[in-house]
Amino acid sequence: MPVNIAIFASGNGSNAENILKHFEGKGDVAKIRVVMCNNAKAYVLERAAKYGVPTVVFSKKEMEESEKVEETLEGYGIDFIVLSGFMLKIPEKMVRKYPNRIVNIHPALLPKYGGKGMYGDHVHEAVLAAGEKESGITIHYANEQYDSGDILFQATCPVEKEDTVETLAQRVHQLEYAHFPSVIEETVKKL
Ligand code: GAR
Predict the structure, then answer these.
(1) Does the CB atom of residue 119 touch ligand 1 within 6 A?
(2) 13, 20, 105, 160 from 177: Cα distances, Å
(3) Of the residues 1, 23, 89, 165, which has the fewest C-beta atoms closer than 10 A?
(4) pLDDT tens by residue, 8-26
(5) Mean pLDDT score, 24-42
(6) Distance between Cα 82 and ligand 1 center (Å)
(7) What angle do CA 86, 92, 95 make, to 5 degrees?
(8) Which atom of ligand 1 sits closest to the CA of residue 118?
């Protein structure tokens, strides 16, 4: 039986699309059943539509105070959750319901440059401001604190002297595209 995956994303969704593409021909291993999004204007919704994957939009309040998200996940028989550019904290009730079944990608080498407010370009700004020589990606299990669950995988890339937020973000994104789908695949194969 394939593992049923839900992708949670908040914005552009380039990683989400890369994951959708990766699993397109792997229906025996896993299927992306739904893309969950907390922003009705996010481009990820168009990307999901291109792959014929249903989308569900919800608010922070709905996620925290109602059963909408959990009921949707149950409706699609979701076994595994991928946070792919998802900018909200996962409520404790969901972490408890999906123990070791929620993974997140972070665009830096945790435990550095994680925590509240550290998302997207803010992370790259902080890495550049600190004069780091190296950055990278971290794929980790999600818990109810930001960026602090057990680490599954890290990969590094150099930070160049002339880097801007844009050039560093691009380099980090390339690492994400290269590794996130296969780390997800290896992880769900062990379920
Ligand atoms: C990615 O770089 C991801 O690592 C980061 O947001 C970007 C989303 O890009 N996630 C976080 O910062 C989570 N704290 P995308 O929407 O094009 O995939």
Answers:
(1) yes
(2) 11, 11, 11, 20
(3) 1
(4) 999 999 999 999 999 999 9
(5) 97
(6) 12
(7) 70
(8) 14
Residue range of the domain that includes 90: 3-189
Taking a C-beta distance cutoff of 8 angstroms, is the pair 46, 57 a contact? no
Cα 83 to ligand 1 centroid, rounded to whole Å: 9
- Angle, helices 165-189 vs 121-129, to 10°: value is 120
Q: How many residues does the chain have?
A: 191
Ligand 1 within 6 A of 136 CB? no
Cis ω on the peptide bond leading into residue 111 (within 30° of 0)? yes
- Whether ligand 1 lies within 6 angstroms of the CB of 14 is answered as yes
70: left (phi over 0), alpha (psi -120 to 50) or beta: alpha
| Number of folded domains that form the chain | 1
Residues paired with 83 in a beta bridge: 8, 104
* pTM of the entire predicted model: 0.97
Tokens for 100, please give them: 């070791």
List the catalytic residues.
106
